Amino acid sequence: MSSANEIVLFHHQDITPDTFAAPQERRLSGECEQSVELHYSDPSGQFHAGLWSGGVGAWRVKYTECEFCTLLEGHVRLLGDDGSVADIRAGQHFVIPAGFEGVWEVLEPAKKTFAVFEEDRLANKE
After folding, report:
1. The (S)-ureidoglycine aminohydrolase cupin domain covers which part of the protein (predicted)?
2. In 3D, which of 43, 46, 37, 38 has the Cα closest to residue 3?
3. Domain membership flag for residue 4
């Protein structure tokens, strides 16, 4: 990772991807294989940015963080428990707000950039 004041260029970093699958109890279809290359985390541990890749499959999600994404490759669908549907293809930008609950479905192998912000829950406890 870069120093605190250095601009972070994703393509100039040699990052070993963290590979994993959605937990079995959240899987709805497919192997739910995923990979994350974390390129930046701020000193507070609340903001993170990197690249994510996923294989075909569907799994339940519950977001506690806000996430901004740009889909670079593939086709994904987000199905909210509230009945909302977001059909997202390569080249589209989107935000998943904290509190979103539903299904993340990869219809074609996908790759995205992501920037995640998670509010410091300890600071908000009284």
Report:
1. 43-114
2. 43
3. no
